[in-house]
Amino acid sequence: MGENLSQKAVIMDENAVLRAIARISYEIIERNKGTENLCFVGILSRGVCIAERIAGKLKELEGVPTEVGILDITSYRDDEKYSENIDRTDIPFDVRDKRVIIVDDVIFTGRSARAAIDAVMKRGRPKSIQLAALVDRGHRELPIRPDYVGKNVPTSLDEAVKVMMKEADGEDKVIILE
Question: What domains, with CATH codes, occur in the chain?
Answer without folding.
Answer: 14-78+97-177 (3.40.50.2020)
